[in-house]
Amino acid sequence: MSGSDAQFMDLALAQAQAAAAHGEVPVGAVVVHQGQVVGQGHNAPIGRHDPTAHAEIQALRDAAQRLGNYRLDDCDLYVTVEPCAMCLGALGHARIRRLVYGCDEPRTGAVNSWPHQAGHDRLPLPAVTRGVQAQAAQALMTEFFRARREFQRSTRPMPLPDHALRTPDSAFEGLPDYPWAPRYMNHLPSLKGLRMHFIDEGPDNAPLTWVLLHGNPTWSYLWRHVIPPLLAAGHRVLAPDLVGFGKSDKPKKTEWHSFEAHRHILLEWLDELNAERVVLVVQDWGGIFGLTLPMAQPQRFVGLWAMNTWLATADRPLTPGFVAWRQMCRDKPAFDIGRLMQRARADTTAAEAQAYNAPFVDMGHRAATKVFAELLPHEPDQPGVVWSRQARDFWQNEWTGRSLMTIGGADPVLGEAPMRHLHSLIRGMPEPEVLPHVGHFVPDCGRDQAQALARQALMHFQPLEGKS
Fold first, then answer.
1. Could you count the other beta carbons within 10 Å of the beta carbon of residue 3?
2. Identified catalytic residue from 440, 444, 448, 460
3. Distance CA 423, CA 25 (A)
């Protein structure tokens, strides 16, 4: 690729961005004659009500008007995406000398993808240079269609299944430090019509994607202080609310919840969002489920940040703290979650405490908080143990990513010892950082400390940004 090719393709990319700004598929083109741009254009079939108003056609028309001739001899055309048969034919009729394009178009491209449809043996076609600024062109196309799919899904009805409840939006108004727009999906096979909420912020082509998985009884609000530094670094952040928590739908019956159901939903969700170069960040049940994901999709994950969680391999006894927690959930299923968070961190405000209570407007919404403590596998034949043991082998023997561990040393449920054991199972894990005055909910250790932890994590995982 010559320097001039890259420069002219930059101009075509600017035209593609203009197309996207007008709601058109982001394809842009320029015509160059003797080193000067003599024509330019971008996709405009929608705005012009013209099925032929492709970027190439627009640029050819512009150049022909400027040069006063429909024959564009000694002209080169730069376009961000592989031309279709119509446009390639027009290039031949215009006698374009050379075609330079960015990314392939596997569905309608007539140069490399489907050459037979263009009649290459009959048309006076130009010489072709392929792949100039292909990554940038593809990123524009990927983001455009992702946003369009998301808009279509967000505007279509997502009816509430009969077997579930949905927390009203009014319950989440005015949450402190939680400004992100809600995103939803309900079409994943394992959701079976349930609507799942998630945060998706930052560019799709970010150097790293941080997947933040909460536990019981919290929701994505747990990560509100961790997220801003990650976004400020130009990274992508994905944070779901597990079904039954947060803004996600809440099955009425405890029987809906299983290790298998939640794990499969997370795997399908990652596939749907095309999450790449993922740093997996887990706490509590976010790790119980999440630590079993990378072995199923190892190409997706490059990093792990673990906080007060464990692998449910059922080969070690439950901690006394967890046994006491499970009994409390049995005896007091309506326990006040906000008050629990205030006990975990004394300076939790009343508004923050209410934010943790917000998803659960009555006991009918609390099937998940009632049953999750019972779901933890602790016998070898229980669901989830096989996956957890396979995950243990993966982390010990196959994991090649970068890892980090932060331990809340004042955790009354888990304590430091199980985290030290988990540390011993993860290949290449450096010495963990122990926060002696932080409890179980490490990401909610306070704004300043949580953001400091996030910045430390950014520095720790920075070497991954330059790797492909």
1. 7
2. 440
3. 48
Give the span between the Cα atoms of 354 and 207, in whole angstroms.
35
Q: Of 62, 241, 411, 444, which is the active-site residue?
A: 411
DSSP state of 36: E
Q: How far is CA 23 from CA 42, 43, 145, 275, 351, in A?
A: 11, 10, 11, 25, 40
Q: In what order do the strands lie in the sheet with 28-33?
A: 36-42, 28-33, 75-81, 98-103, 127-130
- The one-character DSSP state at 116 is G
Through-space distance between the first and last CA atoms of the chain, rounded to whole angstroms: 21
| Chain-centroid distance, C-alpha 415 | 31
Active site residue 204: no
Give dist(CA 256, CA 279) in Å, integer: 29
Q: Mind listing the pLDDT tens digit for each residue in 232-241? A: 999 999 999 9
Handedness of CA 125, 128, 131, 136 (dihedral sign): negative
- Express each pLDDT in 406-440 by its tens digit: 999 999 999 899 999 999 999 999 999 999 999 99
Query: Residue 1: pLDDT above 60?
Result: no
> Which of 284, 336, 421, 423 is flagged as catalytic?
284
pTM: 0.74
User: Does 378 qualify as catalytic in the annotation?
Assistant: no
Q: What dihedral do alpha carbons 97, 101, 104, 109 form, nearest 10°?
A: -40
Provide, for the chain, the percentages of residues in helix, strand and coil under a 3-state DSSP scheme, each rounded to the nearest 5.
Answer: 45, 15, 40
> How many other C-beta atoms can be found within 10 angstroms of the C-beta atom of residue 201?
19
Beta bridge mates, 278: 209, 301
- pLDDT (tens digit per residue) in 358-399: 999 999 999 999 999 999 998 999 999 999 999 999 999 999
Phi, psi of 418 (to 5 degrees): -65, -30
Tell the burial category of 264 from Cβ atoms under 10 Å away from its Cβ (0-12, 13-18, 19+): middle
User: Which parts of 274-384 fold into alpha helices (H)?
Assistant: 285-290, 320-331, 337-344, 350-357, 367-375
Q: Is 411 a catalytic residue?
A: yes
Q: What CA–CA distances, in Å, run from 270 to 116, 200, 292, 386?
A: 36, 11, 13, 22
